Amino acid sequence: MKYRVLGRTGLRVSEVGLGTWPISGAGYGRTDDAESLRVIETALDRGVNFFDTADIYGNGHSEELLGKVLLGRRESAVLAGKAGWDFYHGGVRRNFQPEYLEFACEQSLKRLGTDVIDVYQLHNPRPEDLSSGEVFDALEKLKRKGKIRFAGISVHTAEEGIQAIASGKMDVLQVVYNAIDQRAAFELFPFARQNHIGVIAREPFACGLLTGKYTREVRFEGPDHRRRWRREKIIRDLENLEKILSALPARPPSLPLFSLQFVLGNPAVSTVIPGAKNVSQVLENTKVTETDDFSEKDLETLRAVYENNPSFREDLFRN
């Protein structure tokens, strides 16, 4: 495993982390807890030390699974949590009120079995959620109490990320970045580097479409957030994938490894957090640190494909 520094936090994190939404059983179909625990254990054994979770993932279930595996191994992990989606008080709603964030943090600490969360992130707030500045004060309070070490934010758009970084209160930024959604690379990543902000790249496989497993006939059902996707979006994303692959000198032997190489090829990225539902996926994902780095030429080629095809900027989805 290779490691990078997470911006101004100084934390040394594995280039490949583990995103834990898939093992919650509430985002990417049903799961088996025994296998999910093996996923976390295998990641640790492969040198992964960065684990990204959120309280809303299975209403705390992914946190509980992490807590079980990390019992006695807490020093081996950098834990990144998220909050802002209130599922405690009937239904689910956005809630970034200071008192709620403090409450949510306490609940997450209990489930994770730890005294402190290394990076605590606001979970996809809207700009209006940040406008008063109270949410930043809440994170500073949690820092003073020793409940969290660093503050972060998960965003969808460059504008949201730039607003958060400009506040001066954020240490870490999490954002979608992959070969068919390169929005973050143009304005947001340079601004993050300028301000020494660590970047967590999520959805490196475009929620599975960059793994090569799916065709345009795929149907997502049950506890899978992708069931909300329009058929046109799936078709367009798969067509855009073909445009990307056609621009390369040769088709990559492993689409998942290619996708991770692309993300890690951007120097702004500190760590990428692919999810995994089974051990074989963890083993495959962590192979990327054994491969050659993505060339600057390939990065420029794929950036040009993205810039020159408006279809890449259509039908974008907020998870």
Descriptive overview:
The chain has 319 residues and is an alpha/beta fold. It has one domain (3-313): TIM Barrel (Alpha-Beta Barrel). The chain contains 11 helices and 12 strands. An 8-stranded parallel sheet has the order 3-4-5-8-9-10-11-12, with helices on one face. The protein has a two-stranded antiparallel sheet with strand order 1-2. It has a two-stranded antiparallel sheet with strand order 6-7. Helix 1 (33-45) crosses helix 2 (61-70) and helix 1 runs parallel beside helix 10 (279-286). It is globular and about 55 Å long. The model has no long low-confidence stretch (mean pLDDT 94).
Please indicate the percent range of residues in DSSP E strands (runs of 2 or more).
Answer: 15-25%
Order of helices and strands: EEEHEHEEEHEHHEHEHEHHEHH
Helix count equals 11
CATH superfamily: NADP-dependent oxidoreductase domain
Low-confidence regions: none
Spatial order of the strands forming the largest sheet: 3-4-5-8-9-10-11-12
How far apart the termini lie comes to 29 Å
Number of domains: 1
Indicate the CATH class: Alpha Beta
In short:
This protein has 319 residues and is of the alpha/beta class. It has helices at 33-45, 61-70, 98-112, 127-130, 134-144, 158-166, 188-194, 231-246, 255-264, 279-286, 296-308; strands at residues 3-5, 12-14, 18-19, 50-52, 78-83, 85-86, 93-94, 117-123, 148-155, 172-176, 198-202, 271-272.
Itemize the secondary structure elements and their pairings.
Layout (H helix, E strand, L loop, with lengths): L2 E3 L6 E3 L3 E2 L13 H13 L4 E3 L8 H10 L7 E6 L1 E2 L6 E2 L3 H15 L4 E7 L3 H4 L3 H11 L3 E8 L2 H9 L5 E5 L11 H7 L3 E5 L28 H16 L8 H10 L6 E2 L6 H8 L9 H13 L11
Parallel strand pairs: 3-4, 4-5, 5-8, 8-9, 9-10, 10-11, 11-12
Antiparallel strand pairs: 1-2, 6-7
